[in-house]
Structures are given as structure tokens and as C-alpha cells.
């Protein structure tokens, strides 16, 4: 789980670190370059929003609008000193609205974009910034300063611009953001966390030149990347097992050279196992087997072919080189004790603990796989032909009792023998010899 979360967060974290590094040298940019950098967030709001709408990722759209609304307000209404009463009140309200919006967005369920719920959420995000903009234009905010609570005036940290109230707002909003990431484990949630972090950095060090342009751009890029990553996973990663799917296998086959081995694997008696223990347990079996196959050594790459069938591709290896690694996987799976929880598992924790101590809570079962492998030969016109040979070897493994590895016995094409000359030799030819 920790590795999965790290994988989700890595692109977003890299973008935020890049923004921080760029901040150190932003003063060296020319006036034109700084102006272009200031326009970049507007372009990225359009990109992230379009991706969110196109791929039906409503939360990504909302997060992009939340950042875009805050950035527009900063650029149009907060470009003078915060010592002005109206600017300080506006900044204080923005510091509360921005994180609380992220908390709601993180906790929302995907309900579509072009739906009543989706449109209402979009209006809700934009309305908050429209109200703040209208209040600033009205000139009323300057009179609000004496009425602000102490928590919105005192700074949470020395030499920063984050009030105690804003610090509490960010702290409270972090909880649903992290919970959503931990429970859903989606790229969109990683992007939302990156946006939350970018907003925090931007407001804490608000006096730094171009900080809002850099960190809002980084957060919007993270949101855009999250949509692309999610779309890639939907197309190329099997949702149940988490390993590359058949479409990814087709792409891999197109890149193979002249020497490779393909192994086809099938879970033995899987239908009977499903009928006995149910489809939920069957899914657990598929995930377990996929995880073990995915750990294959020797340079093998695992894919889910479909159903209970898997494929491993060894680029640059012949069958005798790949066979030890296939056998290793087969034995690991066969020797793995899988615990099947009973149907009548008690909901009460104490009763369940007592039942587990009595040994009546679960059943230990083992699962086996059969493997057929084939190496690319001259008789194979393409990788599909190699898969067909591996399939035939797989059927042989099942017919021979299952839980074994069979290598394709297809004969290799013999080297052509040199043709003997049929020309009649003269006595002079023999004399030359």
C-alpha cells in the first residue's frame, strides 16, 4: 500500500519541487518571461478543466477551478500591499475559502460533470470567488478589519502570512484530502493533495515574487497529469490485479526482436474454485496469483491475458533460459498457503478474536497454475503464432495432470544442406584435384 501511494504521489511531488527550485531563480527572468509565466496558469486551467470534462473527472475540474479562481483574485485584487485593510481582509477570507473548497472537493464522489450535481458543484466553487471579488470592488472590506476575530489577525508562524484561522482551516481540510487518497488511491486524489500543498505554500510565503504563478501552474500540471495517468491505467492496467492488461501486451509484442519466449499461464480448476468459494474469493485468488507472477525474475514481464489466464514475455531469451524462472513462479504459487475466511465470520471483534484462536475462523487452501512456453522460431510468422504454440504447450501441461511447466516441442527449421553439383566431371577436373 505504501508503495502504491508513493507511486501515485511521485509525479505531483516532482512538479512541486520543481516549482520550488524555479522560485529561486525567477528574479533572473526578463520582464517578458515573467509576463508569460503570469499567463501560464490561465492556460493550464483550460487544459486541466478540458481534461476533467473530456474524461468525466469532475473533481479534477473543480480543483482546477478552485485554483484558477484564487489565482485570478490574486492577480486582479491582491497586487498591492497587504498593509491595506481591504487587501488584508480579502487575503484572510481567501485563506479560508481555498482550503475548505479542497476539503469538499476531495470528499465528493464522482457524479459526472454535465449533470445537475456536477453543474451545481461548479457554480458553488465559482460563486465563492465571485462574492469575494464583488466585496473587494464594493470597497466594504476595509471596514471589516475591526470586526475580524483575533484568530484571523494573529499569524500562525513568524514571518509568514498565514493567520491562526487559516492554519486551522488548512489543518482541518487536510484530513478529508488524506482520507480520500488513502481510501480511493486514485491519481485524481494525488493531484488534489498536490493542489492543497501548492495553495498552502503560496499563501504562507505570499510575498515571494511569482510564487502564485509557479505553484498554481505546478498544481494544475499535477491535476492534468493525474487525468492522463488515470486514462493510461484504464487502457493498459488491469483494474482487478493491478498488472498490465492485454492491450499493454499487444504493444509489447510489437516491439519484440527476433529472439524471445512467451509463456501462457492458467490457474488450475479456477471455475470449480469460484463455484465452491464464491466470486469474491476468486478475485482474491486472481490478485494473489497476479502478484506472484508479476515478481517473476529473469527479465520476464507479466500481463493479464484475460479471465484466469496470464502471459509472461521474456525478451531476448530462449525457452531453456526462461524455464527456471517459470518453474520458480509455479512453485512459489503452489507452496503459498491462502487463507479463506469463513462465511459466518462474526462482526463482533472480541467474538471474532476468540473464534480465530479456536482455529475455526478460516480455511487454508493452495492454488496451482499450469504453464506452457514457446520460443520464437523461424516457423512462427509473428508473436501471435508463438502465443499459439505456448497455448498448445499449456494444454499439454493441463492434460498431463496440471501444476507443471511444458515447453513447446515444435521442431526448429533445419538448416538447408548445400546442393550437390550434378555437372559431369571430366578427367581434367580430377587431375586438378
Automatic annotation (TrEMBL):
Biased amino acid composition, Polar residues: 402-411
One GO MF term: diguanylate cyclase activity
EC id: 2.7.7.65
PROSITE patterns reported in the protein's UniProt record: GGDEF
Chain intervals for the UniProt region annotation (Disordered): 340-363, 399-433
GO BP: any one term: negative regulation of bacterial-type flagellum-dependent cell motility
Stretches assigned to the GGDEF domain: 258-410
Broad enzyme group: transferase
Name recorded for this polypeptide: diguanylate cyclase
Keywords, alphabetical: Membrane, Transmembrane, Transmembrane helix
Tree of life domain: Bacteria
Transmembrane segments: 39-55, 62-82, 88-107, 114-135, 155-179, 186-205, 211-228
Species whose genome carries this gene: Neptunomonas marina
Pfam families, alphabetized: GGDEF
Catalytic activity: 2 GTP = 3',3'-c-di-GMP + 2 diphosphate
Amino acid at each position: 500500500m505504501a508503495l502504491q501511494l508513493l507511486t501515485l504521489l511521485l509525479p505531483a511531488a516532482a512538479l512541486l519541487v520543481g516549482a520550488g527550485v524555479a522560485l529561486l531563480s525567477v528574479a533572473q527572468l526578463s520582464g517578458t518571461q515573467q509576463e508569460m509565466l503570469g499567463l501560464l496558469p490561465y492556460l493550464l486551467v483550460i487544459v486541466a478543466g478540458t481534461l476533467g470534462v473530456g474524461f468525466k473527472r469532475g473533481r479534477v475540474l473543480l480543483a482546477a477551478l478552485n485554483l484558477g479562481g484564487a489565482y485570478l483574485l490574486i492577480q486582479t485584487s491582491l497586487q498591492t500591499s497587504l498593509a491595506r485593510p481591504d487587501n488584508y481582509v480579502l487575503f484572510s477570507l481567501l485563506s479560508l475559502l481555498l482550503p475548505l473548497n479542497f476539503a469538499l472537493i476531495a470528499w465528493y464522489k464522482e457524479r459526472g460533470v454535465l449533470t445537475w450535481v456536477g453543474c451545481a458543484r461548479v457554480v458553488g466553487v465559482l460563486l465563492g470567488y465571485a462574492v469575494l471579488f464583488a466585496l473587494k470592488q464594493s470597497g466594504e472590506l476595509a471596514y471589516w478589519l475591526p470586526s475580524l476575530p483575533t484568530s484571523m489577525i494573529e499569524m500562525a508562524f513568524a514571518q509568514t502570512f498565514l493567520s491562526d484561522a487559516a492554519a486551522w482551516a488548512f489543518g482541518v481540510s487536510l484530513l478529508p484530502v488524506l482520507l480520500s487518497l488513502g481510501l480511493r488511491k486514485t491519481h485524481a486524489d494525488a493531484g488534489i493533495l498536490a493542489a492543497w500543498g501548492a495553495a498552502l505554500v503560496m499563501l504562507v510565503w505570499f510575498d515571494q515574487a511569482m510564487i502564485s504563478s509557479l505553484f498554481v501552474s505546478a498544481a494544475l500540471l499535477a491535476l492534468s497529469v493525474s487525468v492522463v495517468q488515470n486514462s493510461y491505467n484504464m487502457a493498459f492496467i488491469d483494474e482487478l490485479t493491478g498488472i498490465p492488461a492485454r492491450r499493454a501486451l499487444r504493444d509489447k509484442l510489437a516491439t519484440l526482436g527476433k529472439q524471445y519466449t512467451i509463456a501462457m499461464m492458467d490457474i488450475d480448476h479456477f471455475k470449480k474454485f469460484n463455484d465452491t468459494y464464491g466470486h469474491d474469493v476468486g478475485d482474491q485468488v486472481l490478485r494473489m496469483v497476479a502478484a506472484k507472477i508479476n515478481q517473476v525474475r529473469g527479465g520476464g514481464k507479466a500481463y493479464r491475458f484475460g479471465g484466469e489466464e496470464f502471459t509472461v514475455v521474456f525478451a531476448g531469451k530462449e525457452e531453456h533460459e526462461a524455464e527456471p524462472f517459470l518453474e520458480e513462479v509455479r512453485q512459489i504459487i503452489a507452496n503459498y498457503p491462502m487463507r479463506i475466511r469463513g462465511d459466518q465470520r462474526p462482526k463482533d471483534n472480541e467474538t471474532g478474536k476468540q473464534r480465530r484462536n479456536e482455529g475455526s475462523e478460516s480455511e487454508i487452501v493452495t492454488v496451482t497454475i499450469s504453464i506452457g512456453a514457446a520460443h520464437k522460431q523461424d516457423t512462427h510468422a509473428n508473436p501471435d503464432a508463438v502465443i499459439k504454440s505456448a497455448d498448445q504447450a499449456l494444454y499439454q501441461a493441463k492434460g498431463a495432470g496440471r501444476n507443471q511447466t511444458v515447453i513447446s516441442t515444435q521442431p526448429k527449421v533445419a538448416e538447408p544442406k548445400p546442393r550437390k553439383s550434378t555437372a559431369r566431371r571430366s578427367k581434367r577436373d580430377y587431375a586438378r584435384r
